[in-house]
Write a structure and sequence with these properties.
Layout lengths: L5 E11 L5 E8 L3 H5 L5 H5 L4 H9 E4 L7 H5 L3 H15 L5 E5 L6 E5 L11
Antiparallel strand pairs: 1-2, 2-3, 4-5
Length: 126
């Protein structure tokens, strides 16, 4: 199975362009580190942290209907249901699934898998 980097979607309501054309189908790619870091320097994010999602979506939505270019103005004009849908899709495709380790109980030899969470810190253990 190939590693998937692009995900097709269909907006619940759709984006209506200036000519009145409705665009519902699109493609979102996986986010990169730059997608998450570079918008933090943008003055619009510094004055309004909620604007971060608009910039992120403008960077990762690579196709929306017949539009040739998706930018922050496009994302700003989405209906709130569509914005919420894309934010949810972004979180879903970019969340990291914790790796699993196949192991066995040292007492009974029962084999099982354990999720390894590198992001959590356990207090009191070194």
């Amino acid at each position: 199975m190939a590693f998937q980097t692009e995900y097709e979607f269909e907006l619940p309501r759709g984006y209506v362009d200036e000519q009145g054309t409705l665009h519902k189908r699109g493609v979102m790619r996986l986010a990169t580190a730059a997608d998450e870091i570079l918008p933090m320097k943008d003055p619009r994010v510094q004055s309004n942290p909620g604007y971060l999602s608009v910039i992120l979506l403008a960077r990762v939505v690579t196709k929306l209907g017949d539009l040739r270019h998706i930018d922050t103005r496009t994302i700003e004009k989405l209906f709130t249901a569509d914005l919420t849908y894309l934010q949810s899709l972004y979180r879903h495709i970019n969340e990291m699934e914790p790796p699993k380790l196949h192991t066995a109980c040292p007492k009974c030899d029962h084999e099982f898998e354990v999720e390894v969470d590198f992001l959590s810190v356990t207090e009191g253990h070194s």
